[in-house]
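User: Reviewer 2 asked us to show a designed sequence for the structure in our supplementary figure. I'm pasting the structure tokens here. Could you produce the per-position amino acids so we can include them in the response letter?
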């Protein structure tokens, strides 16, 4: 019986070491700080700036996760995977500077440089648009219904982090122009559409969903059908487009007609060009 006990104790020890290793390595990844300096930026508090900031917050899909009233909501809550929350925005806005707020949504890190998770970054958002977004955020007020940002990761979630299945949101480099470019089609494709789509290749956006190549997809639509796609998420057939429908209903529908026309024109031009070599 002694040898069986020793084998059992050895197996338990190996499991404990493995669990400890996963926890330690994932905890280092979760808490790692990134040297991302905030760029000089001040909120645009003008009436026009705040109004445009409110529209941009919706176009960018911020309220998809943070809730229609920006009071936050739980994104995932599974004992083995963990709990992810998109926190209420008003309490964060009250304690952070304009530069830190802009760094958060452009670089995907918190005030200490620690990466956020499941936080889409907008590294190509122009400085003037970032200032408008911050100006709008400054108008938000805390509520008793606000959800905190406390989150934790279960064992499967930590394994996914180490395997790369759950990627950190940190984006150290940005490619943001000072002002919104005149070519709003190319600009909004980079800022909004490329969060899910590649121009020339399909891209997985979840365990089962695949976003089609954006340039070729857009070129297949006429102008009216493309406008309907971005306004309603309905394609040319009866199939429910799922993520695209949700993106249109909550964010893309806030694009104006001129922006949609410019997006279609830009993507049509891109579809006519030879695609770049596939990445290895």
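Assistant: Here is a per-position design you can include in the supplement:
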């Amino acid at each position: 019986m002694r040898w069986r006990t020793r084998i059992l104790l050895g197996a338990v020890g190996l499991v404990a070491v493995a669990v400890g290793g996963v926890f330690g390595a994932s905890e280092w990844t979760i808490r790692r700080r990134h040297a991302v300096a905030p760029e000089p930026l001040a909120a645009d508090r003008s009436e026009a700036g705040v109004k445009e900031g409110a529209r941009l917050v919706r176009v960018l899909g911020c309220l998809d996760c943070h809730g229609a009233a920006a009071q936050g909501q739980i994104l995932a809550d599974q004992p083995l995977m963990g709990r992810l929350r998109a926190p209420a925005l008003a309490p964060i806005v009250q304690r952070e500077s304009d530069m830190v707020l802009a760094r958060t949504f452009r670089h995907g890190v918190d005030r200490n440089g620690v990466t956020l998770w499941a936080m889409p970054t907008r590294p190509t958002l122009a400085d003037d648009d970032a200032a408008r977004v911050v100006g709008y955020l400054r108008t938000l007020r805390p509520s008793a219904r606000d959800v905190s940002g406390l989150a934790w990761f279960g064992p499967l979630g930590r394994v996914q982090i180490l395997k790369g299945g759950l990627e950190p949101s940190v984006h150290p480099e940005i490619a943001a122009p000072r002002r919104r470019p005149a070519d709003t089609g190319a600009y909004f494709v980079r800022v909004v559409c490329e969060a899910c789509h590649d121009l020339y290749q399909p891209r997985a956006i979840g365990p089962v969903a695949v976003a089609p190549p954006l340039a070729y997809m857009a070129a297949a639509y006429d102008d009216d059908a493309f406008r309907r796609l971005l306004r309603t998420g309905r394609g040319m057939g009866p199939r429910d487009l799922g993520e695209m429908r949700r993106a249109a209903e909550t964010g893309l529908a806030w694009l104006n007609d001129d922006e949609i026309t410019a997006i279609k024109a830009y993507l049509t031009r891109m579809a006519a060009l030879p695609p770049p070599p596939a990445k290895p």
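For the response letter, you might also mention the following. The beta strands are 73-78, 82-86, 152-153, 203-204, 210-211. The CA atoms of residues 10 and 103 lie 48 Å apart.
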